[in-house]
Amino acid sequence: MPTIKIVDFSGESAGEMTLSDAVFGERLHVPAMHQVVVAHLANCRQGTHSAKTRGEVSGGGKKPWKQKHTGRARQGSTRSPIWIHGGVAHGPKPRDYHQKVNKKVRRLAMLSALSMKVRDEQFTVVKGFELDKPSTKAMKGFMDAICAEKALVVYHTANENVTRSVRNIPNARILNVASINVYDLLNSKTLIVTPEVVARLEEVYAG
User: Fold this and answer.
1) For the chain, first and last CA: distance in Å?
2) DSSP per residue, 3-19
3) By the 8 A CB rule, do 46 and 126 touch?
4) What domains appear along the chain, each with residue ranges and CATH number?
């Protein structure tokens, strides 16, 4: 079973924690993580793009000039895609980009991402954020103490002080444990969690 150190808000060691092998010691499955990330990015697309076809733009009711004997190319409508202000040929139309991923694949990808963070020593458990009020300076000092880069903070409850302290730090994000996802795990370098988050992840994924 993986064993990691627990730190306090000053960055000092505050003990150790043994993690579940079933959640944080899984074999990495890169194809599952890739599929889940691709689906996540696709599902984030709004799909509201649209362009007008030649049947939707205004004008073009009359043939521009007669068919023959003008010395110009034959034209039937000014709404043709080759004309300025004409319609768009094969342009984008509103569509749904949603991709479905099976539950077992999502679970496998999550376990792989968490295990990779532990394996690469990019997983930090903090005993508690001692913040009586929002303080970006205090949070930045903590992240510098543990050498956190592109940090993702996962918290177990809604905490306005912690949220407001993290959100002004460049390249740092904060999520509730209920919103944790593979894309944000892989897009971050340092994962910072609380013991309560670890317990929740083991409760959900160890079964």
Assistant:
1) 16
2) EEEEE-TTS-EEEEEEP
3) no
4) 3-45+101-205 (3.40.1370.10), 47-96 (no CATH)
Q: Which amino acid is at 121?
A: E
Our CA angle for 131, 17, 140, nearest 5°, is 30
Cα–Cα distance for residue pair 162/142, rounded to 1 Å? 12
- Residue 187's pLDDT is what? 95
Q: How far apart are CA 169 and CA 190, in angstroms?
A: 14
Divide the 207 residues of the chain into consecutive groups of 10 and give the mean pLDDT of each group: 86 86 92 97 96 92 93 94 94 96 96 94 88 90 91 90 91 93 95 93 87
> What global pTM score does this model have?
0.83
- Reduced to 3 states (helix: H, G, I; strand: E, B; else coil), residue 161 is helix
